[in-house]
């Protein structure tokens, strides 16, 4: 029954690593830990995924941490530098699926501002028929509504989409909202599952 593959992006297709971006600028490991634990945190960045503009979130953060203003300001315009490269084997796998004429889609928690310059750097997205970007929709995984939107927009009946994400909460929500779901670990494990589902010959 599964006939389409739906990918998450960060830490499935590409390696997203904020620590790697800031480490050269904050060489003291203890200070880097503090900065990522208290200033540029996942919770702060999640606001971008939910649709808030960087100008607003950065101004608020700088007001709280004025001594860190220069480092905070870099996050938005240099966001592409937080992507350290592809996840091993994944661009090749996307190409294999496309060559097999398997419909490929995406659901990603991503800023509407950061997404266009990021996508432009990655030719693998030419294989995707559609990608739902949380910041554009103001819906984020694991909200059930984003999965229902995906089924509708991609033209998939429940059980026809195979969803892949690195986060267990996103996978569980997808499985509860019409998708066959897989928690990503590495490309070989995923390839084996795609073979089992008959999506790769």
TrEMBL record:
Q: Which InterPro entries match?
A: HAD-like_sf, HAD-SF_hydro_IA, HAD_sf
What stretch or stretches form a coiled coil here?
none
Alphabetically ordered keywords of this record = Hydrolase
Instruction: List the molecular function annotations (GO) for this entry.
Output: hydrolase activity
NCBIfam families, A to Z: HAD-SF-IA-v3
What is the official name of this protein in its record? Hydrolase
